[in-house]
Amino acid sequence: MLLACYGLLWALQLYVDYRLSNSNHADYSQWNTLMQGKVNARMVFLGNSRTEAHFDPVCIEKNTGISGHNLGLSGLSMSEEQIIWKSYLAHNQPAKIVVQNVDLYALTKKPLAHKALYLPYYNDKVLLKELKKSDATVAYEQWIPMSKYRGFETDVLRALGILGIKKTTKIKGHLQHKENWNNDFSLFKAALQGKKINYSTTEIAHELAALKEIIADCHQLQSQLILVWAPQYDELTALQEPTFSEVKKQIKQLAQENPNVVFWDFSTQSFTKEKTNFYNSFHMNHLGVAVFYKQFSDSLNVHLKKPIP
To answer: Which residue among 44, 115, 176, 261 is least packed, with the fewest CB closer than 10 Å?
Structure first.
């Protein structure tokens, strides 16, 4: 009886895995495209929600002639980003240009933000290796059927067809925001009670180590790596000091030490003082992005001097 139940659970898990790995639901479609090796862009954008919201591959391609794809996902630390980056390399052709957004949120340690995406792919050796570095429970989840889906019952119901499909609003991985300035920053400042944001130097060092892995990979692949500190609201920058300036010095030093790496700092542009360009202190809306992508495109054209082969 126990053996029969064990077998049924494995059969159920295989079915759920199959359905989710082929799902068009908004939460899975972009990730499945990556895992199926269908991205293969000449330029990819890596990072968290600031990458996802700020880098519009369609507009950038119009200005540079270089096709791109945005691999950004909300809530990522540099450590979790390794799962996306290594999985991309395992299933897609290496990009000629890699654009990596850097910011203090990405350099702080946090729980996995997108474990649900990875669950159908435990049979993928590259993904599983990277996932185990961040989540010790994966070591036994891979052997106990359906255990990995605990806490993700909604995804199971979606795989079984009980819940409906939500279509993605992303275009080539970019998520446009047309919202106006909200009260997130006011609530954030109130929670700080007049203090500045405190960052852990240990966490920053740990996450910078993950960035150094990307630098090493790009060097081996002969890919141009562009580190970008995208614009953020001016008052947030003030609250992040002195860590903000100290970390930027470290990023600049990394670029100077590696010939295939450059660092472009857009964090203190004049328009960062205007709330109309943001929907919160960390993210630009479509108005800010319209200014930023032109600045980025112009910088890329000047840097390359001519289209890459």
So the answer is: 176
